[in-house]
Amino acid sequence: MRRFIHNGASVCAALIPVLALLWASGAPLFLGILVWTEQLLIASATLAMALCFLMRSAKRDGRQAEEAPWFDRAAAVFALGYGVFLTLRFPYLTENLFYAQQEALIVASIGLVLLLETVRRAIGWPLILILAAICLYALFSDQLSGPLQSRAVKPERLVVFAILDSASMVGAALTIAVVVVVPYVVLARLLLASGGSAVFSDLSVSLIGGTRGGAGKIAVLGSALFGSISGTAVSNVASTGAITIPLMTKAGYRPKTAAAIEAASSTGGQLVPPIMGASAFLMAENLRIPYSEVVIAALIPSILYYVSLLVFADFEAARRNLKPVEGERPSVASVLRRGWFVLLPFAILITGLFAFNLRPETAALVALGVLFVIALYKTYEGRQLTARDVVKTLVDAGHIAVDIVLICAIASIVIGVFNLSGLSFGLTFFLVQVGQGSLILLLGLTAVLCIILGMGLPTVGVYLLLAALAAPPLIELGIEPMAAHLFVLYFGMLSMITPPVAIAAFVAANMARAPAMLTAVEAVRIGWTAFLVPMLFVASPALLMMGSGWLESGLALVTAICGIGLVTAGVVGWFRVILAIPARLACIAAGLSLFVPHSMVDFGVVLNGAGLIGGALLWVFAQRLGNGAEAAQERA
Q1: Residue 133: strand, helix, or coil
Q2: Do residues 107 and 163 make contact, with C-beta atoms less than 8 angstroms apart?
Q3: Which residues, including other chains, have CB under 8 Å from residue 355's CB and lie 6 or more apart?
Q4: Contact yes or no for 228/348 (Cβ under 8 A)
Q5: Whole-angstrom Cα Rg for the chain
Q6: Residue 425: is it exposed, middle or buried by C-beta count within 10 angstroms (0-12/13-18/19+)?
Q7: CB environment 130-161: b (16+ within 10 A), e (fewer)
Q8: What tens digit of pLDDT does each residue of 235-275 get?
Q9: DSSP string computed for 601-634
Q10: How buried is residue 185: exposed, middle or buried, by Cβ count under 10 Å (0-12/13-18/19+)?
C-alpha cells in the first residue's frame, strides 16, 4: 500500500509539469485538440490538491506519503475525480451558467472546500484569513459608509464566481503559474540534476574563495546564482546553506552572522534576473509589458543588494581578522570547462527574450530542450542523465509546483473578489487621500503593510496579494507602475528576514544552531540596502533604467555603490581600522548623501558632492590611522 501511494503521488506530481510543458509547446493545437486554458488550469489545480492530500498531513506536521491515513487517500481520489469531471464539464457550465445555476453552485462549493483545505495544509491560514475578510466585506459592504460602501454580493454568486469565473481562480495568476512558472521550475530542477548547484558553488570558490572572508562571499555569490532559479528563499537556504553555513562558521564568522548572511543572500535570489523566482512573470502580466522590461528594471537594484552583501562579508572579515578559505581551490577555467553547459540555458533565455522577443515559456522550453540534450551525454559530475533522472526531475518539479499552483489559485480568488466587491476602489481611494497629504507617509505605511502581509507567505503569494492591495494607490499618485510593483515585491520579500516571522532567517538559524530572533535581527542589519533602495527607485526611476539614458543610470549606480561602501563601513564599524561611534555615524551620513539621486531634490548634486568629499576625507583619515597602527605594530 505504501509503495502504491508513493507511486500515485509521483504520477500526480509528474503530470503537473508534463501538462505545462505540453501546453507551452503548443502540442494540443498541433494535434488539433481543442482545449480551453481554463481546463488546463483546473486539471493542474486538482492534481496539486490530490498531491497535497497525499503528502501533507491535516495537522501540518510534515508527514510523508506512506503515512497517509485512509481519509487523506480518499480525499486525494475524490479530488482527482472532481478534477476530471470539472475539466470536462467546464465548457458546458460556462456557456450555460444561467440554466445550470444549481449544478454550478454545487460544483463550485466542492471545489472551494477542497482548495481551502489544501491551501491550509500547504501554507497555513494567512491567505485563507485574508480571503475570508475580503469575502465578508463583499457580503456586507452595503452596511458600511463612506468610500468603503459598495453593493453587496450574494453568497451563491460569490461561491460560483470564486471557482468558475475566468476572472477568479482560473484567471491570470494561475495561468502564469501553470503555463510560465512551472516550465521554469522544471528547468531549475534539470539544472540541479546536471550539476548546476556544484557549478555555482565551485565557481564561487574559484572566484572569491581566496579573498579575505572568502567563505561569506561564497555564500553570497552562490546563493545569488542558485536563488535566481530556485524560486523560494527557504529552499535556497536549505540547499546552499548546508554547505555555506558550516564553511562560514569554520572560517570564523559567528553562527548568527553566518546564518544571517545565508538568509539575506538566499532571500535576494528572488530579485536576480533573468528568472527572479516566479514573481517577475506575474509582474510582467500585471503590468502588461514584455518580460524583458522587468528584467532590465530589476538589474541595478539587484546589483546594489548583492554588492552590499559582499562588502559586508569583506568588512566583517577584516574587522574580525578572518582568513580566506583553506584548501585547494579549482580554477575558473577548469570549472567552466566541465560545467559550461549549465550556464548555457541562461544565455539562451537572455537571447530569446531580448533578441528574438520570445514568450517566457517558449524561451524556457528552448533552454530546457538544449540542456536536456546535452545532459544526456554529460553532466558536471561526468556521468550521463538517465531515464530515472528525468523522471525524478519531473516528480521533483511537480512537488515544488504544488505550493505555487495552490497559492496562485487562492490568490487569484482574493484578487477577483477584491475587484468584484469594489474594495479595490475604496481602499485605493482611502490610501490616495493619505498619500496626497504625505507621499513619504504612504510609502512607509505601504512598506509596513507589505512586511506584515508577507509574513509566513512564499514570495509568489506575497507579490500577488500586494500587487492587488498595495501597488494601485502608489500608481494612482503618479509613481511609475514598474517602480510601484518592484517596491511592494521588495518589501514583501523582506518579510523573509524581518522579525517576528522571518522564515528564511529561522531556517538558517536552525542550521547554524544560532538564536532564531537574533539571527533575524542580524539579517536585517546585513540586508539594510533592501530597505532603502526601493524608496530611492520610487523617487528616481533612473535606478530602474527608466526615463533616463544609460549615462544617468550608470551615474546613479556608481554613486549608490560608493554610498553602500560607506554605510556598510558604519554598520560594521570597520573602514581600514575599527571605527568609533562618531566615525561610524559620519560614514553612514556620507554614504546616505551619496545614495540620494541628484534628480530627487533640487540640491541633490550638492548632497552627492558633500557625500563624496566626506567619504574621501574619511578614507584618508582611516588610511593614516591604519598606517600608524601597522607602524606601531612593526616597532613592537
Answers
A1: helix
A2: yes
A3: none
A4: no
A5: 26
A6: middle
A7: bbeebbebbeebeeeeeebebebbeeeebbbb
A8: 778 777 888 898 899 888 999 999 999 999 988 877 787 66
A9: STTHHHHHHHHHHHHHHHHHHHHHHHHHHHHHHH
A10: buried
